[in-house]
UniProtKB/TrEMBL annotation:
Belongs to the dTDP-4-dehydrorhamnose 3,5-epimerase family. One of its GO terms (biological process) is polysaccharide biosynthetic process. Keywords: Isomerase. Pathway: Carbohydrate biosynthesis; dTDP-L-rhamnose biosynthesis. One of its GO terms (molecular function) is dTDP-4-dehydrorhamnose 3,5-epimerase activity. It is an enzyme of class 5 (isomerase). One of its GO terms (cellular component) is cytosol. This is dTDP-4-dehydrorhamnose 3,5-epimerase. It comes from Pseudorhizobium banfieldiae. Catalyzes the epimerization of the C3' and C5'positions of dTDP-6-deoxy-D-xylo-4-hexulose, forming dTDP-6-deoxy-L-lyxo-4-hexulose. It catalyses: dTDP-4-dehydro-6-deoxy-alpha-D-glucose = dTDP-4-dehydro-beta-L-rhamnose. It holds the Pfam family dTDP_sugar_isom.
Length: 193
């Protein structure tokens, strides 16, 4: 496995090694010892999976508040997504900045998003499956969200035009409505595509 840092501390790209032959390939997706020593010293407690039937489906931007904040390890075994992390750590120099990249079954990339970030993604292909391991179980009383199209954050989603989004995600607040005392930085964070 190879690890690549991103423009946001706490967000790391993981590239598993694929061993290919005429049958296909084999790769190790997760090794606890490697992950805990090289990426983050955490334990995962739950695996989640979502299916997006159509391209341009947006899920997010979601997070959980303390004491059940979640770190997430995201991978895509079928299809492709544009995966996004937004820094919500008000004491961070990159508060309000985002990082995005394509995760796909073809490239095999994974992304680690530590606690303190909102997470969301847009499906790029039909019948896309997204898996994510999380460090805390879901808690309805601690869930939060930010508008996926918040202009102050300025995520450059790869599919323009109509998107498919749940009523709940369509009505999430903007970041400045939640953190009026913490100005959003306007540092440009280039996505890895």
């Amino acid at each position: 496995m190879r690890i690549e840092p991103t423009t946001l501390a706490g967000v790391v790209v993981i590239i598993p090694s694929r061993h290919s032959d005429d049958r296909g390939y084999f790769c190790e997706l997760f090794c606890e010892d490697f992950f805990r020593s090289q990426v983050a010293d955490v334990r995962f407690v739950q695996d989640n999976q979502s299916l997006c039937s159509r391209p341009a489906t947006v899920r997010g931007l979601h997070y959980q508040r303390s004491p059940v904040q979640q770190g997430k390890l995201v991978t895509v075994p079928r299809g492709a997504i544009f995966d996004v992390a937004v820094d919500l750590r008000t004491n961070s120099s990159t508060f309000g900045d985002w990082f995005g990249m394509v995760l796909s079954a073809e490239n095999g990339f994974q992304i680690w998003i530590s606690e303190g970030f909102a997470h969301g993604f847009m499906s790029l292909e039909p019948d896309t499956i997204t898996n994510y391991k999380v460090t805390a179980p879901y808690s309805a009383s601690h869930e939060g969200g930010i508008a996926w199209d918040d202009p102050d954050i300025g995520i450059r989603w790869p599919i323009a035009g109509p998107v498919i989004v749940s009523p709940k995600d369509a009505s999430q607040p903007r970041l400045k409505e939640m953190h009026a005392d913490a100005p959003v930085h306007h540092q440009e964070v280039a996505p890895c595509v």
